[in-house]
Amino acid sequence: MLKDYFASDMAVFFNPGEFADSHTINGESKTIVVDNEKIKEVSKATNQGISLGEILYSIPVSEYGNKKPKKGDSQLFDSKLMYITWVDENMGLYEIMLSQNRGE
Any idea where the domains of the chain sit in the sequence? Predict the structure, then answer.
């Protein structure tokens, strides 16, 4: 099944020995993939090239926690107070862009 194929890909993608790193999100250690190159793509698509964020990361929906992330939510990212400026859910992943400015 396609779902099983993507699940095996995510295991590689979120392997700390491959692409992922451990970061502290809201006091909990999480394995995420930081993709700051995608900030440029998202900023161009949503705001005519003006940067919307400082960090963009991917995390499996199942690993994020109980509360679904939404634009404007605060988040402690590696002990820095950040705000979600953009969030997308696709194929079992959240992509979350953070900024230190609230920007609502």
Answer: 2-99
Q: Quick one: tokens of 88?
A: 């997308």
Contact 53, 85 (CB under 8 A): yes
The reported pLDDT for the residue numbered 69 is 96
Mapped to the 3 state alphabet, what secondary structure does the chain carry? Answer: CHHHHHHHHHHHHCCCCCCCEEEEECCEEEEEEECCHHHHHHHHHHHCCCCCCCEEEEEEHHHHCCCCCCCCCEEEECCEEEEEEEEEEECCEEEEEEECCCCC
Q: What is the pLDDT of residues 38-74, one digit of tens each?
A: 776 666 665 544 555 689 999 999 899 888 999 999 9
Q: Report the CATH fold assignment for 2-99.
A: Thrombin, subunit H (2.40.10)
C-alpha distances in Å from residue 81, one per residue of 34, 37, 78: 17, 22, 9
pLDDT for 1 equals 41
